[in-house]
Amino acid sequence: MATTNSEIIKVENLKKNFSGLEVLKGVSFSLHKGEVLGIIGPSGSGKSTLLRCVCQLEKITDGSISICGQNMVTDGVYVDKKTLRKIGLNVGLVFQNFNLFPHFSVLKNITEAQRVVLGKEKSEAEETAISLLKKMNLEQKASCYPCELSGGQQQRVSIARALALKPEVLFFDEPTSALDPELTGEILAVIRELAEEKMTMVVVTHEMSFARDTSDTIIFMDGGVIVEQGKEVIENPREERTKLFLKRFNEK
Fold first, then answer.
1. Where does the chain cross the membrane (predicted)?
2. Residue 177: closest CA among 164, 169, 188, 167
């Protein structure tokens, strides 16, 4: 599967079945370095499953995926486990429910993966963690535990943890869905800042204005397929299904 030098992700005809139920029905897209891809669509449309497949949390049924020019799976056949682990280091995922270790401090939540996955020394891992906590305005929370933080603070720690592994592309699976509306803005501000820094990102979101303003390309999914994609999907949708979805959203 040929890729260009700047092409970070290429997905071709991706299919995923769960017990005979076809959840993804031939999804194809590509993402280049420094771009932000926004994915929108109703619940159950396959958005989160798509992310989980690219991040190796689910095995695909058929199709091909390459990341940073390396083939991860071709026509449903995966490369060897050693190569998969290497490819996986290029990808970071921020979950909607934070997934922090409750028995670890904020600092250890960020340093542990660096030490286990990257083999960093404790001092180097902590230096990286403190630098990222400063970026997230959470340096003073380093010794706290997740239960002592607000939802927005926990999500910022989760973002810092993902960034600590220095992935080439960062995935966000509805990063504000577990937050109160008043905390949503602080997470979206962090993602906007990363976009300004040209971090390559894929963001599944229900925040339409955020997707419109931040994404280089927007994909609208429904029923396991990409209905349409492009920069103007939210402002000028072409397909009737997209128009109906956005109309219902705007009427809420």
1. none
2. 188
Domains contained in the chain, number: 1
Q: What six digits make up the tokens of 134? A: 């400063």
201, 170 contact by CB (below 8 A): yes
| Single pTM value for the model | 0.92
The CATH number assigned to the domain holding 192 equals: 3.40.50.300
Cα gap 68→78, rounded to integer Å: 16
Say if CB 76 and CB 1 are below 8 A apart. Answer: no
Neighbours of 194 (CB within 10 A): 20
Contact 88, 124 (CB under 8 A): no
For residue 117, give its domain range: 7-251
pLDDT digit string, tens, across residues 180-195: 887 888 899 999 999 9
Q: 1 lies in a domain?
A: no
